[in-house]
Amino acid sequence: MATDLKDTIRAAEEAEQATLWDEAARLYEESLTLLASGGDARTDEAVLLTALGRCYWNVSDARASWRTLRRAMSMYQERGDGVGLARATVEILRIWGPPDRQRAMAEQALEALAEQDLRLRALLLFYVGRDEEGLRLADAHGFRDLQAIRTQREGWAAFDDGRVDEGIAALQAAHRVYAEELVFNAAAGTLRGAGFATMQAGRFDDGERLAWEAVEYARRVHLRFQEQLALLDLVGVAFARCDFARCEELIAASPAQTDFRADAYRMWMTEQRGDVPGALAMLIDPARGGGAPTAVSQIHASSAGVLHHAGRADAATRELEAWAEVARQYGSFAEEAPAVSDCLDELGSDELVREVDEAYAAEPSSRLAYATLQGRCTGYTRGALALRLGRVDEAQSRFNEGLTLAERERCPIDAARCLEGMARIADRRGENDARAGYLARAAELYAQHGARLYLDRMTRSGG
Fold first, then answer.
1. Given this chain, do its domains 143-256 and 259-377 carry the same CATH topology?
2. Distance set, CA 407 to CA 115, 228, 241, 263, 416 (Å)
3. Comparing 91-105, 345-359, 432-446, which segment has the lowest mean pLDDT?
4. Backbone φ, ψ for residue 363 (5° rounding)
5. CB 3.0–4.6 Å: which of 65, 237, 305, 341 could bond 57 by disulfide?
6. Reduced to 3 DSSP states, what percent helix, strand and coil does the chain have, rounded to the nearest 5?
7. What is the pLDDT of residue 462?
C-alpha cells in the first residue's frame, strides 16, 4: 500500500509538471483515497490537498478548488504550520472572490509565515497591498517572476496614459518572464490582460490578435479558465460586430462552460433579435457569480438592461439598484454601464447617474472606449449620461466620438445607437431634418443587422 501511494504521488507530480491538470487531479484524488485506506502515515494529507486544489482551479473547477484548499488551510492552522498555510493561501487567492475576504486571508497567512519563506512572504505582501516591500524582497533575492510584477504595472500605467503600444510591449515582456519561470496562470493572465486592455482602448484587431495568443498559450499549458476568459473576450468583439454565428462558434470552442458571460451573450443576442420573452427566460442567477463582486455586478447589470427593455420597470429598478450597490463597492461603474445604459438613463436616480458619469470622467477616453466585458462601445453611454445631466454640447461630442470609433471598428449597433443619440440632440435644437436623417441612418443599420429590439424601440418612441 505504501509503495502504491508513493508511486501514485510521484505520477501525480509528474502529471503536474507536464501541465496535465486533469490527470494530476485524478492521481491526487487516488493518493488521498490510498492514504485514507491506511497509506504511509508520513505522507502529509494537507500537502496533497493543496496540490489537488491547485489542479482543480487550473481545470476551472472553482468550487472544488475552494473547498479543497480550505481543508488544507484548516489542517495547517491546527498544527501551526505557517509555511504550509502560506502555500495553500497563495493558491486560494487565485480564485476570484470578495477583496476584503481575500485580503484577510492573505494577512492571516503573512502573520503566520513571518520570515520563514521569503518568496512566499514577498508574494503575500503584494496581496495585502504592500507592493514596495514585496518588490524589495524580490529584487534582493532575485525572484524573477515577482520582479515581473513591476513590468506588468508599468504596462497598465502605459495603458492608462493612452500609450497602448508601450503597454502591450510591457505586458508581453512580463508574460515571457512568467512563462520562463513556469508561473502558468500569471503568464496566461497577463497575455489575456494585454488583449483585454487593447480592446478597451478601441483597437479591436490588435486586441483580437493578443487574445488569440492568450488562448493558444493557455491551451499549451492546459489552463481551461484562462482559455475560457480570453475566448469570451473574443466573443465580445464578435457580438459588437453583429457576427452572432461567430459568437456561437467561439462559445462552443470554450473548454469549460463555467463563465456566465457565455449565457449573457446568448441572452443579449436573443434580445437584440427582438425575442424579448426569450431573453427574459435566460436571466442569470447572481449566484453564478460565486460571490466575486466583478461577476455579481455584471449579472445584475445584464438583468437590469433586459428587464428594462421588456417593460418590467419595477424589476429593472431593483436590479439597477443591486448593480449600483456592488459596482459602487468595486468601482466598476464605467466598465459595466454600457450593458445597462438605457435602464440607467430612463430609470436611474439623479444621484446614480451622476456617480456613473463621474466614474467615466475619471477614466480617459483612450483607456475605456470599449467595454470588453459587455461587447459594447462606451460612446453612446457617455453621451446619454451627459445629455441626461444637461450637458448637450458634450453629449454631441461623445456621440460623435462614439460614432467614429464604431464605424472604424465595424460595430454597427454601437454606430446606430450614437446616431440615435445625435437625433435626440437635433430634436432638442429643433433641427428636424437632421433628426430625421440620423434616425433613418440608424434604422437602416438596425434593419441590416437584424436588431429588431432597437427598431421596435424606435417605432414605439415615434422615431
1. yes
2. 56, 28, 10, 27, 10
3. 91-105
4. -110, 125
5. 65
6. 80, 0, 20
7. 67
State the burial class of residue 118 (Cβ atoms within 10 Å of its Cβ: 0-12, 13-18, 19+): middle
pLDDT in tens, 30-80: 999 998 887 666 778 999 999 999 999 998 888 899 999 999 999 999 999
Closest CA to 376 of 310, 441, 451: 451
Helix (H) and strand (E) counts for the chain? 26, 2
- Domain edges within the chain: 143-256, 259-377, 386-463
φ, ψ dihedrals at 23, nearest 5°: -65, -40
**Mean pLDDT, to the nearest integer, of 426-452?**
96
Fold for domain 259-377? Answer: 1.25.40
Rounded Cα gap, residues 15 and 221, in angstroms: 12
Q: Is the pLDDT of residue 140 over 90?
A: yes
One DSSP character per residue, 373-421 reads TTTEESHHHHHHHHHHTT-HHHHHHHHHHHHHHHHHTT-HHHHHHHHHH
- CATH T-level fold of 143-256: 1.25.40
Whole-number Å distance between alpha carbons of 61 and 365: 36
Buried b / exposed e over 170-195, threshold 16 CB at 10 Å, is bbbbbbebbbebebbbbbbbbbbbbb
C-alpha cell at 93: 487567492
DSSP string over 98-161: -HHHHHHHHHHHHHHHTTS-HHHHHHHHHHTT-HHHHHHHHHHHT-HHHHHHHHHHHHHHHHHT
State the pTM of this model.
0.91
CATH superfamily of domain region 386-463:
Tetratricopeptide repeat domain (1.25.40.10)
